[in-house]
Design a protein that fits this description.
Length: 193
């Protein structure tokens, strides 16, 4: 007795085989696409984080350079003005090199101040602005460029304001200076037991 299989059964099996193969291919492509999309998304997020870190590092480097330049110019201006104050206290006339140095400091002074004004947060800008105005007015008065009275100096000693400016700059830059540990100073010494 021979079994006769209806014609539609092999056709249905063939169609199901083809459909199964196509479905497996489609599912594989969908899963691969999802995996690739997730991978690209993670890569984009990582790149964005990396760019943010690089931008933050660049801004930090720019602020550090601006702060350094301003401090150098402020200290140089203060040194020159101190020489002027000493000469005036001794009733000596102002010599050409001092005037020339004050004049030569004018452009770097302005450039350094504008960089800090652009990049620094409020507290650094406030303290730097007070010192800058005070030193600039005193320099302009020495050079005869100031027509009115100089700006009233901020309260406190100038060196204290320099210290406050340095502290505000260090805080902005995230530089923490540790106080010396008294226990660490005695490291390596034998106890008196």
């Amino acid at each position: 007795m021979s079994l006769l299989i209806p014609l539609w059964v092999p056709m249905a099996v063939a169609v199901l085989g083809v459909l199964g193969t196509l479905a497996a291919s489609i599912v594989t492509q969908v899963l691969t696409r999802r995996r690739d999309d997730r991978s690209w998304s993670l890569e984009r997020e990582e790149r964005a984080r990396q760019w943010q870190r690089e931008d933050a590092a660049r801004w930090l480097a720019d602020r550090r350079a601006a702060y350094t330049e301003l401090l150098v110019v402020l200290h140089e201006q203060d040194r020159v003005l101190e020489a002027v104050r000493r000469r005036r206290a001794q009733a000596l006339p102002l010599d050409g090199p001092v005037s020339a140095r004050l004049t030569a400091l004018s452009d770097p002074f302005d450039r350094a101040w504008h960089a800090v004004e652009l990049l620094a947060p409020g507290e650094v800008t406030r303290i730097a602005g007070e010192l800058t105005r005070e030193l600039r007015d005193e320099g302009d008065q020495v050079l005869g460029r100031l027509t009115g009275p100089p700006a009233e100096p901020a309260p406190g000693d100038r060196q204290e304001r320099f210290a406050a400016l340095g502290a505000a700059m260090r805080q902005d830059l995230g530089v923490h200076i540790r106080e010396p540990d008294p226990k660490a100073q005695h490291k390596g010494t034998k106890p008196d037991c």
